[in-house]
Specification:
- The protein folds into two domains: 114 residues, Beta Barrel (Elongation Factor Tu (Ef-tu), domain 3); 69 residues, Double Stranded RNA Binding Domain, CATH 3.30.160.810.
- It is 11% helix and 39% strand.
- It has four helices and twelve strands.
- The strands form three sheets. A six-stranded antiparallel beta barrel has the order 1-2-11-10-7-12.
Length: 215
């Protein structure tokens, strides 16, 4: 996959290009991301770099295992940790404590952005899965927005796993692919990406090179 960046969604705005048209963009503060740990095939079964982002302001709120993990790397605790699979060459040329910034991306490049979608609370099947609902006439009582039968007859005689039922909506990992990088502002570690990305304002996101676009 190659190295990517961790960032924080700051919000959305629009910018104007040369022909005068407006482009909606998401503003992301991406990096600098610090290398917290190197993982190798010999020790861990795979090659990867663990990056950290967003230094924790109140260190006393960090638990002891995480504090010890960062202390081993001589780094302050950070609020967002993720791993990126890399080649052996990239692993060997990178040291713990090294940094990656927005400079690894360039305008016009396509990226995949992963975030956690907004939580919508408890929702029924009509809102969550767009069920049609029951008929409003012909003797229907109190079941206008219900999902209908969820079981079988005698065999197998149970509700199957994965049945679409009411429950918590949102707060899931979502990836939006093939988003175009409009601008890279290295002095402020800001990425302007065309379109919307998952999650609320100040939500953490992961930016990687697009897997379905030639680089």
């Amino acid at each position: 996959m190659g190295i990517g960046l961790l960032g924080k969604k700051l919000g959305m705005t629009q910018i104007f290009i040369e022909d005068g048209s407006a482009i909606p963009v998401t503003v992301i503060k991406a990096g600098p991301c610090v290398v917290v740990q190197k993982k190798t095939v010999l020790n861990d079964g795979y090659d990867a770099l663990q990056l950290g982002f967003d230094e924790v302001q109140k260190v006393k709120r960090v638990n002891k295992p995480i504090t010890g993990h960062f202390k081993k790397a001589n780094l302050p605790p950070m609020g967002f940790l993720r791993e990126f699979r890399v080649d052996v060459e990239d692993l060997e040329t990178t040291e713990v404590g090294g940094e990656f910034s927005v400079d690894i991306f360039e305008p016009g490049q396509f990226v995949d952005v992963t975030g956690t979608s907004k939580g919508k609370g408890f929702a029924g099947v009509m809102k969550k899965y767009h069920f049609k609902g029951q008929t409003a006439t012909r003797g229907t009582h109190e079941f206008f927005r219900h999902g209908g039968s969820i079981g079988q007859n005698m065999t197998p005689g149970r509700t199957m796993k994965g049945m679409k039922m009411p429950g918590h909506m949102g707060s899931k990992k979502v990836t939006v692919q093939n988003l175009k990088v409009i601008d890279v502002r290295g002095d402020t570690n800001i990425l302007l990406i065309e379109g919307a990305v998952p999650g609320p304002t100040n939500g953490f996101v992961i930016i990687k090179r697009a897997v379905k676009k030639p680089q």
